[in-house]
Structure formats: structure tokens, C-alpha cells
């Protein structure tokens, strides 16, 4: 016989609406006849099975189990600092049921708006770690604070769910990426809700939903109409392992950002977006943004605007005769043209193959093959030795007619400028090193104004006055001119002679906008079979949905996986009826994240990307919080798309994000390691020169102690250890799951600890034991308002607040706290705001009674940080509605003034101490306080006061009768 029983220990809500996180299992053993019972700590249900027993023994077992469960729950209740395990699910359920944080669809122009946004996450299978809630908690505090200040708040959440990670996982497991993506979103959502973030979940979006990417495709068509989307044969970053092309920003040190796979350079026909057309505006508009200066500088450097000249060098054959081919170079120093003694072409240069001599052809091709395996960063690294190969061909310097050799070298990039440079070894360090290595002539043409170069033994890259810079045949003479004036003169000569022109150049390259992968937005273009002409899909046919595929592995040839969906690929041009094929590349992951902040303003709109009135009300985003790693990817791309949308009248602002805040990284807990020599003996870290030469062993924290600023072994303090915190990662085993923290300490404690660790923008080291401090603060706040727990761990209903007028001292403590918390939230200095509330609680514990008005104001101050506890306390204080929209307390300046003074106290004319009194303190009160002071009381106890001299706020002099013997002693 198998019987299954369910018991419930919750009385507030039906069990099915209380979302409990996974809990640790505990085993209660009944007897030899009964199977073990697995109880979940603080669980609302106990499920067990009784086997092979009679009815009476079964009933006895049930009674025993219920009793054991009750005892366990009682023990757990007593151990808890406060009942967060009941409070938090209760209020999360309340918020969800009542849609407490739903932002109305209608616009209320009578109230100011506040749009606060997190950089929306990629929902990975690993779920959140404790580093993720750092920024989310900060934005949630701001959102709750602004709601209470009367703002209309938009605080949404969504998912950047297309891209390589889901597809890689799908390939490895055979699971469709749609399935894993939905599963991951469900897990992320559950975790975010368990921490109590006040998102408007009715506005939730995912980039993978056709209703969303319909408008991503629509934006692409607008770019196409305006010539900002085009196809070109370009050298690309091809990743064989991922089977796709990557943007320059997605390649780090020659490997893919995702997965660390080798990336090679390969020419392919690709979709490009002309972000360079907006380079100047992207640069100029940075000045007006409230962004970290470091992020703005990164964007300036990435855009890399420079002014200079393009000039043509005519190719000459072996007989010294000019050919029709011209090599165009770009230089920022046209003043040094007379010093150009050779040209360098990038390995990707389109003319290179046609310039090779027979003798050099093989050497050049071998060199090119090696260069294509290097990343741009590797090729341009200043410290590396410069390499190159002579092409066997020459070109003519336009200003003096000299024949200069043409070389190929990988330190020149095909993606910058024209892919060719004039090398001036006397005035450029890279060119100088190259010329010295390959014995190429060096010609000095710039003399520093201070004459410091002497005999020109090393390159000089600065400005000065020109020397060796004239040619009668060309008619150009710039000798003696300052560098800047010489540059202008050379540009004038180039334009007049038809050999070149003034040119502004950028490091920024057009955005490579195609991926040879399945899991991405289809590009809405078809190609006619007969002509190959590209035809945009009609806007009325959007969304062009992604077809279902069983095999979405990379083809390995560069042909995208979508090419396998023949029935989807083969189509007809709706206008001409001609047979055509769909584009089989998909958009990169960045596409959907470029504009999602706009869709949050109007997520259900089926006829427009965003309603104009709603965009005008909500835009731009007031505060945008996320990692600094997105400085030149997402933030730059989003600004580009926003400016295009501004130009076509979709948005009303030039920039999408008014204020950007980069939260710091939360590192894993400090790990301690000891060094060992070859024989396995421990050696002190301070005696080690190169750590890599020694074996290292992890040391458990309990075996470590601190000695000054260092960490050493407890058993042998002579062995100094290496203490280091690393970024959280599975490989290091230092990932902390927020679910575990919420289970043990509660969501409010997690929120407070992440804010209390240090300034929001700084990187911090996680320390699980550190959370106990803020947990104790919350417990003290709870007991202050509710009262102490009974021996069973239960708390009385209601609060200990009294309906009495607060004292001046209580009002001062409260309003100082209000002033500080308000100021620190507005300045995003959340850690010091928590400190102010801790100081208030310390003061409040000294009061005999707690006036209701004081406690209610404190609960409202606490609510943005610890919303679950605050809601519960607010309810116990007699309020039937959520406090989410209650007015945030305002500090009264009258209570902020320092109204106490330090009053010197003299006894018979000698200063014996001081007391702290109110400015308006009476003489009687001053004497009373003096008699209570431990230092002064020994002079006053048992003495007769003959006279008192009191000047309010200045001094108290007490004259006492002194016995004759004492007078003599004093004399």
C-alpha cells in the first residue's frame, strides 16, 4: 500500500501562488518500517510515502511526521533573524496580482517622466550570478524612489535573445535554439522576480519574437532606401569554428570574443551598414552627454577622426616608364612628402597581385597567407617586430619624381585609409624600424625647432621646420616653412596638379552586418535569378519570419545554414513574377539591441515601431545602467541607428541615452594560494620572482590569517600567501548563485549588500560573510517596529508604534536621515544612504517610545532598498495599499540645523569638563546635565552650591562651598 500525504504550514495564501526557490533537503528517519522523508527547509508542503504498514501504524507515522515538521519549522523560525521567507513571496505575489508597477499606456503629461533602463541581458543557461543584480538593484532603487516622488516611471525588462551562444548550445545538444532560449528566459524571469525588482512585466519583449523583429527588419529597409545598407566584397574576420563572419569589435587578440576561437581574414561579399556617414555627428554629439568620460573617450578613439591628404603615386615599370595604375595613399603628415622613400601596401590591397614581379610573387603570397591569420590588433601592435616583403615593383613620388620601392607589410591594414601608406622612416618609428631592418634609404625633412635631433640618429615624429623639401621640376618648395603651413602648401599643390586632395579620415569602419548563422533576424531582401539584382521585401510583408530548420549547423563553406531551407529560399519577385532567392545571411545579434529601448515605450504597437506621442514623452532614456564593455559595440551602434531614425522623423531626440552609468564588476570571493618548489615544499610568496615558475596550491580560508596588510598561513606565519579575487566564472568555481543567497538571507539582504559593498561604479569583491551585517540591520529594523519574537520564533501582529507627537530629538534624527538618503539616492551613492539608515536605527533603539509618524517615514525611506520588508511593515502600520506610490519623505530644513553646543563647565573658576546641551538650554537643565556627567559629578556630589553663573550657550560656572582644610590644600 502506498499513501501520499500533503500538509501545509502556510495560512496566508493558497500554496500554488507562493513561489519558493529550490531549498536544501533534510532527511527525517521514522523507523525501520518507514522510508526516509525528505523535507524542504521552510517548505509549505511535505510530500512523503509510507510503505508496507497497517492503517494504525500509517496514522501514527503521519502524526509523527507532522510533529517532526512542526518542530523543524519552529526551529527554523527561531533561527531566522526575521521572517523574510514568508514576507518576500507574499509581496512578490501581491505585486504581480495587482500589477503594482505597470506603467499606464496612456500618457499623463501633467506628471514628469523618468525612464530608467538596464542594458537588457542575454538569457544564458547558467542563469544569474550575484554580479548581475548589482546594476538591476541600482535601477530598481531609482525607479521606486522616482515613483514615490510623483514621476511616471518606465522601468521595463526584456531579452537580447538572438545570437551565437544559443545556437552553439543548440548545435552541441541538438536542441532547437528557440527551446533553449525560452527555457533560459523562464529561469531568468523567475530569478529576477525572486529579488523583487519592480519591472513592468507587461512590457516584456524578446528580440526573437516576430512581432519585435518585424520592426528590426523595417529599420533595415529604411537604411537600404537611404544607401546606408549595401553589399561589398571586403576582407572580413572569418571564424571557421563558429562558421560565421565577425565584426572587428567581436575579435579580441586574434580570437572570437565568444568562445575564443581562431579568426582569420578572408575576402567575402557582405552586407555593410554605412556608420561612417555619421562619424562626425557621433563624435560631435558626445560632448553634450552625461556619460562617463572614459566611455566617451573610447568612442572618440574608436571613431578616430584625423585630417590629412590623399595623394597618388604612379606605378612605374622596370624601364622606368609610367603605367596607368596609381596607388593612393592617405597621410596625416603631407608636409613630410619629400621624405617618403618607400610605399607599403596592406596584404589585402586589391592592386597587390597585379604589382608582383615574377621573382617575388611566391614570397608575397606566402606572406599574405600568414598575415590573414592574424588579428588587426596583432598586426598593428607597436612592440612587435615589423615584417614585410618587397613586391619587386616601384612607384614615382609625385613631388620629386624619385622611384620608391613598393613593399607589402602586415602592419598596414586594408580597412584603414586606402590600405596603403607612404613610408617616411625619418619621422615615423614604425617606418624607421622597417627601413633599418631592410636597408631602405632614410631622408630627413623636418628639423625640430629646438634643434634637438642633432645628427638624426633616431626618428623624430613631431613638428618643426622643413628641410630638404624642394623640387624645381615640380615647382614645390616648402623649405623653412613650419610643419602646419607646409602641409597646407602641399595640399594646395596636390589639388592644383591633380595628384591628390585634402581628406578627413576615420579609424571607424562601416559596420559588417551579416552572419552566416541560423539564429538571427532574416534580412528582408531577395535576389533575382537572372540578374542577381537585390530587391527589398515589401514593408507590408514584414515580418519575414525565420523558417524552422532541423539542421542549423554551419556549412563550413561560408554558405549560411538558411541555404538548406530550400522551400523558404526559393521565391518570386512579387512585382515582376521573376524567380528569385532570399538572402540567407542573418542579422548580427547587435541588430535587435540597437533600438529595444524605443519598443519598451510602445511594445504592443502593430502599425508603427513606436507611437510618436509616446516617444516624445518618454525619450530619451534618463538613466541607462550597464557594463563598460559595451562602449564601442552596443552604445555606438545604438547611437547610429537612433540618428538615422531621427533623420527620418521616427524619434524626436538626437541621442538615445541622456545619462549612462557603468556599474563595477563584482569579483568572486578572495582565493588564497601558496607557492611550492619542485620538491613540493611551501615557500613564501615574497621570495618568488616569477609566479609562473612555481606550482600553486589553493589554501582554504580557515587556514589563513591576516598579518598587517598581508595574508599568511595560520600554522606557519612565515609563509606569505597570494590573495586574489577573480571575475566570476564556472572554470574558477567562484560563481555565487543569488538563489542561494535569497534562500539563506532573503532578497532584501541581497539587495542591500550589493549596494552596501561600495560605490556603484567601483569593482568589488564578494564576501558571503559580509552579507550578515546588512541582514542584522534589517533584523534590527524589523524588531524595532514589530517587537521581539516569542520563544517559538513568531512575532506579534501589528507594531509597537504609538500615536504620540515625536520629540525634537526624534524629528532631528529622522530628517537628517531623510536628507541624507534622498541626496545619496539622487547621486547614486547607495552605500552611504544605507549607512544613514543604520545610524537612524542606532538612535531609535535609545528611545523609549516610537511615534507612528517617525516610523512610517523611516519605512518609506527603507522601501526602495528593502521593498519586501517595507511593504510588510507598512501593512502592519495599518495601511491597506502598497507603499509603492506613497510620497517619499521630504526633509524639513528646520530640523537639519545643528542646535547643540559644547558648554564648558567651571567649578570655582576652573574648567573641569564640558557637556553637550541645546542652544536654548536653561540654567536648571545645564546644572542637571553637569551633575549627571561622570567627570563633573565627583566635584559636585555632596557639595553645597553657593552660586551659579550661566551664560546661555557660552559657559556654566558653579561656585561651591569648600571646607577650610580643602581651601588650605588648594592654596
UniProtKB/TrEMBL annotation:
EC number from the UniProt entry: 6.1.1.4
Keywords: Aminoacyl-tRNA synthetase, ATP-binding, Ligase, Nucleotide-binding, Protein biosynthesis
Catalytic activity: tRNA(Leu) + L-leucine + ATP = L-leucyl-tRNA(Leu) + AMP + diphosphate
Broadest EC class assigned to this enzyme: ligase
InterPro entries in the record: aa-tRNA-synth_I_CS, aa-tRNA-synth_Ia, Leu-tRNA-ligase, Leu_tRNA-synth_edit, M/V/L/I-tRNA-synth_anticd-bd, Methionyl/Leucyl_tRNA_Synth, Rossmann-like_a/b/a_fold, tRNAsynth_Ia_anticodon-bd
Leucyl-tRNA synthetase editing domain residues: 300-495
Domain Methionyl/Leucyl tRNA synthetase: 119-251
Residue intervals of the Methionyl/Valyl/Leucyl/Isoleucyl-tRNA synthetase anticodon-binding domain: 811-919
Cellular-component GO terms for this entry: cytosol; mitochondrion
Ranges where the record places region Disordered: 1-22
Gene3D superfamilies: HUPs, Isoleucyl-tRNA Synthetase, Domain 1, Valyl/Leucyl/Isoleucyl-tRNA synthetase, editing domain
Keyword set includes Phosphoprotein: no
Gene Ontology terms for molecular function: aminoacyl-tRNA deacylase activity; ATP binding; leucine-tRNA ligase activity
Highest taxon, organism lineage: Eukaryota
Domain Aminoacyl-tRNA synthetase class Ia: 507-669, 725-755
GO BP annotation list: leucyl-tRNA aminoacylation; post-embryonic development; reproductive structure development
PANTHER family: LEUCINE--TRNA LIGASE, MITOCHONDRIAL, LEUCYL-TRNA SYNTHETASE
Similarity section: Belongs to the class-I aminoacyl-tRNA synthetase family.
The protein's name in its UniProt record: leucine--tRNA ligase
Organism: Anisodus acutangulus
Lineage of producing organism: Eukaryota, Viridiplantae, Streptophyta, Embryophyta, Tracheophyta
